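so my prof wants the structure for this chain in the tokens format not the other one, which i didnt know existed until like an hour ago. anyway here's the sequence
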Amino acid sequence: MNKLIKIGVATLAVFTLTATVPTSSVVNASKLKTVKPDPNASDRVWTYKNNVFDAGNETYKFTKHKVIKEDGEKYLILYCDITNNSTKEMEPDLVSLVMHANQKTSSTDEELETATIGTKQNGLEKREHNLYTKILPGKSVHACIQYKLVNNSPVTITFQNADSQTIGSKTIKIK
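here's what i got, hopefully its the right format
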């Protein structure tokens, strides 16, 4: 299973580095942090500390969270600023391969489904767009990661490295 995950991550990395990018806009990019692109960013040790997930090529700084209702369902929204540390364009949505959200029910520990519910009305449209758009080297974007909740129990977010080892976690109480 670990080999299969490694092959999948490697395949997606190759796709990320070779795919073409459509022109698109980002939210408040001028107000966000920029970094000097590092050609060795992929060699950095992955960490999770103080609400910051550093995955080498990209850094995800989680700034807040909230629960919203849409069409009778509840969703957990994780707001984050994503920085591309590398010299290549990066796809931030690939974090879903190494970031997992779980909620316990009365009999199971359920992995939550990622969601795409961004609209102008709920204010998530531009942030959601930024999660699914390539980020230029050294640039940052405001984004959000959304999960469909199964109940009101706490959500545990786990962060893994490229070897599928858990390197950190965060628990969020649902109100």
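also thought this was worth mentioning. Residues 1-30 have pLDDT under 50 and may be disordered.
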